[in-house]
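Sample intake — NELFB factor
Collected from: Circaetus pectoralis
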Amino acid sequence: AGPGQAAMYAGLQELGVANGEDLKETLTNCTEPLKAIEQFQTENGVLLPSLQSALPFLDLHGTPRLEFHQSVFDELREKLLERVSAIALEGKVEERYKKLEDLLEKSFSLVKMPSIQPVVMCVMKHLPKVPEKKLKLVMADKDLYKACAVEVKRQIWQDNQALFGDEVSPLLKQYILEKENTLFSNDISVLHNFFSPSPKTRRQGEVVQKLTQMIGKNVKLYDMVLQFLRTLFLRTRNVHYCTLRAELLMSLHDLEISEICTVDPCHKFTWCLDACIREKFVDNKRARELQGFLDGVKKGQEQVLGDLSMILCDPFAINTLALSTIRHLQDLVGQDTLPRESPDLLLLLRMLSLGQGAWDMIDSQVFKEPKMEAELITKFLPMLMSFVVDDHTFNVDQKLPSDEKGPIPYPSTIPEAFTKFLQENRIACEIGLYYILHITKQRNKNAFLRLLPALVETFSDLAFSDIFLHLLTGNLTLLGDEFALEEFCTSLFDGFFLTACSRKENVHRHVLRLLLHLHHKVAPAKLESLQKALEPTKQSGEAVKELYNQLTEKLELRKPSPAEVTETPSMELPLPTVPTPASR
């Protein structure tokens, strides 16, 4: 018997059941092989008196004994599996588990026998506590570990953080990769962007579902996953880990796993915030509820702020808070009210501040709410409101009959303080960027060009972060027609994008994404100079090279074929620009 056959009979000898090896030995040492085979069949066959007379019938029909025994075996195994599942649900708790433990004790020696293995695995699956010794044996054998049910694996994982980490790690990598692929997706649209899927849809994602299943109702495993997420967030500053933290909790909430939800102090806060994210707005009722949770953090329990800050650092939460802030500011303009007089606005800022301070709080382990700078409320936000007023004023002016002086030009300068705030204050920068996204979405070219220079240097380079550039490129599709204008392209590309392309690969990728989408709108001369400026260098990554090649191909297809080009020789020298005579 080869190694494969040896596995087929693994463990039978320990139970005193004859196996292939025994038959081989009997046949080797006997004088009458046929008699020996008959005796072996009688001793080891199905011991039913009524069967003995029936078996010759099968022989007459040419049915091999193996086929008969196999079908009896399969049938019995099915019955046994059903019985095990039934035992797990009937009688008193101690009794049922006692029966299963006895069954495991008897059958475990056959665990490596492929035909019996499913039964042993089924018994273990239904035992809330598999004996330690058996778990160690399963863990030590790769194939057994692979074959056992997740219910058994959970029992192994809860005392083996490293092994659990090995299982979870590839899922976390996959999750981050999926997020980044969405941000760099070639589909640029203002309607379908990174923030379009609802929270419920996101929780159906493969990684969240797998993690939810791996955790089950096991608080210890849930805590381990949260610890992994915190550690990775600290190590990488990648905010997508914060999203996963919230999604995982809400996925367990959807399944009504109260064993975990009731012990996670962030549960109700996350649940309420989840509803706001779904609506992309924090309404007054929910604002009061969220404030209640923050105000309710008791002395000695401040550590919960670390978790709440991570929930608020989720980009989907930041997006909702920032959009709500912009909406509030517009309402305040209409009501002639200052930001400091709006409690709802102050709460939004408080939550933004807590979310943006998550990394520092978890890193320093100092659990207290970050202090809000008064100038943010007394100077920066009123400045944003004044930009809204500038737009209103300009629009009204446009509609008035123009006097001799001609129409009033749009204000082109920005207060120095605005640029300074964007460079030095994280919350101001976040709100400022969302205001710029807002005016772009409104197709407000004037306001966009006015504020764009402030984006070249921002706090921690936030204006060159993937999430902002993903949203900006989407919104810029609404200003598609402006790309034909030299002034617009120079401000956008030379004045903003190209200032960072060489030092930031992600910016290079986003510009190429935008041009792949809008190249047909860009003035040909400008397109040519952009193509030169965006050529990948030796240091450029594969993604940049791939995008650049795609763009080059598209531009090649657009070029007219030589036959179409008219034969008039082109003038080598540029025409001098003739100044227009001044009107008298």
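Post-analysis note: Residues 266 and 308 are 6 Å apart (CA to CA).
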